[in-house]
Specification:
Elements lengths: L1 H10 L21 E5 L2 E4 L4 E4 L2 H4 L8 H13 L8 H13 L5 E5 L2 H16 L3 E5 L12 E3 L7 E3 L6 H4 L2 E4 L4 H10 L3 E6 L2 E2 L5 E2 L2 H14 L2 E5 L11 H6 L5 E5 L9 E5 L1 H4 L18 H11 L4 H23 L5 E5 L2 E5 L8 H6 L2 H13 L2 E2 L8 E2 L6 H12 L2
Parallel strand pairs: 3-17, 5-8, 5-9, 9-12, 12-13
Antiparallel strand pairs: 1-2, 2-3, 4-14, 6-7, 10-11, 13-14, 15-16, 16-18
Helix pairs in contact: 3-11, 4-11, 7-8, 12-15
Bound molecules: pyridoxal-5'-phosphate.
């Protein structure tokens, strides 16, 4: 493992292709995985781990799911990329529309980041406005307009949250706290020129923090009133919380929906969509440019279709119930020694080491990361892999059988 890490650092920037994989938040060397099957990952030394990261929630049926793999193999034999129109794209779009009827027209991309960037460009092109609003603690990929944090004062102007992002661009993104109705209302009194508001309706990138229903309803009302488009970033929540995503759960319709992760069956993908008239503003029909060499890639399309066609209300009922029971029992074990708030939405969950259940990012930041590190390392040693950051969600797959979950609980017991 040490050699793998040393070698990686001599050829890859920082040794990884996505920063969280470097284990900076938890210490120690990152684990190099070699293969996966079902609920398990195996590292380069063949040590087995029960996996609760599941490629950041992308794997609904677990690793190397047999049906997904055969779909990919069958397509690979026929070709991996054509750069032309294919029927596979239509087929996946139709499948998505069964769960998300509001996505009357869909455009596929190669990642969630691209889908978000394109949805924002569409919103700007459609409305002829430039400013956008996002919420603290929500993650929408690494596009320039979204890597922005609240500026000082009334948070009307954002400032760059990464080097390399032009200040002038960051200023076009306003940032407000999640779940704060008062601040939202005040903000809209003086800001009626927004192109769009983007939100994770169930936040899953500061740990799991659901939006309050009234907060989302207010947001829907204010955006409608001021002509700003409402974008639900359901890249995680879309196929995690229930069939139809958070918009179904809350019964609130956004103007645009962004999806990713599960809809690619573990292959690179993103998608965004909304009403037919709005989507007609995209090129080639409209004047908002958007494109991609590998967009709608055949392998991603067939992998996604193989997963989505097996999902139904019933699939979610049983997996979510299993997750609920597991989270309750693990929470009891962790709660013996720690202050604990347990957050669960569908088959994703976060254990926050705090007295008060977090409702926004400032609450989340106050939770105890030292205890998180202790638990993370204790689990890892015993062959349980959880996301290597206190502010992330953990996930269950259908491959997490009772036996696997009991084993995990044993590991929690020994911490
Ligand atoms: C993962 C994620 C993205 C970005 O998707 P990538 O495929 O990593 O670019 C965007 N929004 C949310 C809510 C996500 O969880």
């Amino acid at each position: 493992m040490k050699k793998a890490w040393a070698d990686a650092k001599t050829s890859l920037a920082g040794g990884v292709d996505s920063p969280v994989r470097a284990f900076k938040a938890v210490g120690g060397n990152p684990v190099f995985m070699a293969r996966g099957k079902g609920a398990h990952l195996f590292d380069v030394e063949n040590k087995r781990y029960i996996d609760y990261c599941l490629s950041w929630g992308a794997l609904f049926f677990g690793h190397a799911d047999t049906k997904t793999v055969s779909a990919i193999k069958a397509q690979a034999d026929k070709g991996t990329s054509f750069g032309t129109a294919t029927e596979m794209e239509t087929e996946l779009a139709v499948e998505i529309q069964k769960a998300f009827p509001g996505m009357q027209r869909i455009r596929f991309t190669s990642s969630g980041t691209e889908a978000v960037m394109s949805a924002i460009r569409l919103a700007r092109g459609f409305t002829g406005r430039e400013r956008i609003l996002k919420f603290e603690g929500c993650y929408h990929g690494h596009g320039d307009s979204l890597l922005v944090k609240a500026g000082s004062g009334l948070a009307t102007f954002g400032s760059p949250d990464s080097a390399g992002i032009p200040r002038e661009l960051a200023k076009l993104t306003a940032v407000l706290p999640y779940n704060d109705e008062k601040k939202l209302e005040t903000f809209f009194k003086t800001n009626r020129d927004l192109a769009c508001v983007i939100i994770e309706p169930i936040a899953a990138n500061m740990g799991v923090v659901p939006a309050k229903k009234n907060f989302l309803k207010l947001l829907r009302a204010l955006t409608r009133k001021t002509g700003a488009l409402l974008i639900f970033d359901e890249v995680i929540s879309g196929y995690r919380v229930c069939y139809g995503g958070a918009q179904h759960l809350y019964n609130i319709s956004p103007d645009l929906t962004v999806l990713g992760k599960i809809i690619g069956g573990g292959l690179p993908v993103g998608a965004f969509g909304g009403g037919a008239r709005l989507m007609s503003h995209l090129s080639p029909q409209g004047r908002v440019y958007q494109a991609g060499t590998l967009s709608g890639n055949p392998l991603s399309m067939v992998a996604g279709k193989s997963v989505l066609t097996r999902l139904s209300k019933k699939t979610y009922d049983s997996l979510n119930a299993r997750a609920g029971e597991f989270v309750l029992r693990a929470g009891r074990l962790l709660g013996r020694k720690n202050r604990l708030s347990v957050h669960q939405a569908g088959s994703m969950f976060t254990f926050f080491y705090s007295d008060k259940p977090p409702v926004d990012f400032s609450d989340v930041r106050r939770s105890d990361t030292k205890t998180f590190r202790h638990v993370f390392r204790g689990l890892l040693k015993q062959g349980v892999y959880t996301p290597p950051s206190a502010f992330e969600a953990s996930f269950l797959s259908t491959a997490h059988t009772s036996e696997v979950l009991e084993k995990t609980l044993d590991a929690y017991r020994r911490i």
